[in-house]
Amino acid sequence: xxxxxxxxxxxxxxxxxxxxxxxxxxxxxxxxxxxxxxxxxxxxxxxxxxxxxxxxxxxxxxxxxxxxxxxxxxxxxxxxxxxxxxxxxxxxxxxxxxxxxxxxxxxxxxxxxxxxxxxxxxxxxxxxxxxxxxxxxxxxxxxxxxxxxxxxxxxxxxxxxxxxxxxxxxxxxxxxxxxxxxxxxxxxxxxxxxxxxxxxxxxxxxxxxxxxxxxxxxxxxxxxxxxxxxxxxxxxxxxxxxxxxxxxxxxxxxxxxxxxxxxxxxxxxxxxxxxxxxxxxxxxxxxxxxxxxxxxxxxxxxxxxxxxxxxxxxxxxxxxxxxxxxxxxxxxxxxxxxxxxxxxxxxxxxxxxxxxxxxxxxxxxxxxxxxxxxxxxxxxxxxxxxxxxxxxxxxxxxxxxxxxxxxxxxxxxxxxxxxxxxxxxxxxxxxxxxxxxxxxxxxxxxxxxxxxxxxxxxxxxxxxxxxxxxxxxxxxxxxxxxxxxxxxxxxxxxxxxxxxxxxxxxxxxxxxxxxxxxxxxxxxx
Length: 525
Hints:
- By secondary structure, this protein is α/β, with parallel strands linked by helices.
- Helix content is 14%, strand content 32%.
- It contains 4 helices and 37 strands.
């Protein structure tokens, strides 16, 4: 029994020793992982939308400073380390600091510095990343990956007993890559539909990127087409237009048996293929095209971060599907204490801003000039025509924003050959959302825009807006003899265009006034 117990005690003591060392090692590793996570986030926060070399330097400095606060070293300053490790050629920063130890693999080649508190470590900061596990993060020459920073750290292990059992590792390590999407970047789509995009019987040209979560479907008689044409940004730089689809394109329960663009319910069966490198001004019928040329995922990054190239659809896809940004609340939306019905809102022959609601039917028929301001429209009419624009509507609506509440709808029916022009209300604050939205909703129900003037004339009537239509849960229905022309951006739930052989709807992306995207600061690895 004594020899057996002795052997058991050796095994038991060994197991206890290893468990103790593993616990200590886990503690050390979790500790330095917390440090690298925090350092990478601190560095990424310093990266703006389009980082320049000076931004990479600032990010590197911020990451080094945070580690230095927890694990101080002496002998040199953070500024000196950044100056030595950041190279303006290629705008790459790679700084390695060895504090009291050099036995990291690969060997430490940075300056050998004494630790202020005896802690031994090797720290590397790369902006943009150089050794990330996700290889695409290491494409430092691609501007779409310059919004990331990498922090790698090794520390002298606190383990002891494991060495007695053959372990040769005396270091704990951690790595973090952080990503920053700077605030107030414009949402990059001229036309965004969270379901599908349908087109009428003539080519529909969108100057900018187009997003359809499921598919883009021109009418099936061969005359219709949708094309994402180039757009010009506020710096007068031209960018190609992209067609972007949501993902997954297969297996979506809401579209059982159909595979997005490859198998949509358009007539004839199947779908119009997506063609790249198209001249939208001369595009033929039965085509879904884009001016951008695609060869792989890196090309898709020019449209929006996180997109991948789908060979089957010959398009960029977002997985998970993209969600529209929250509306940037326009300043000074008044709170109305009561509602008015129709012409009760007239003062000296001019409609005044307010909350319009009638007991039944249409709440506001625009047959007089409108004062600048917000016009809140409550859902009442069963026909969806809570607001009506027709032949009596003034040709110009200046500084007018419609706020559709509870699923209210606008029926805009300008007669053939006429144009109703609208600009959004601008309170002059200069804040995001002020002077941006022509039509927005409270995201309740299914707010609608319906255009359907049948018969008469050979040209369409046009509702021309210079701003954003923000109806992410709503529907735009465009039928015969009317067209919607927007210079700004349209964010909609479903875009349903079934217009005839007349002027087709058009959207021109204006990055200077579109919806801003929320800021994102997160760990990418």
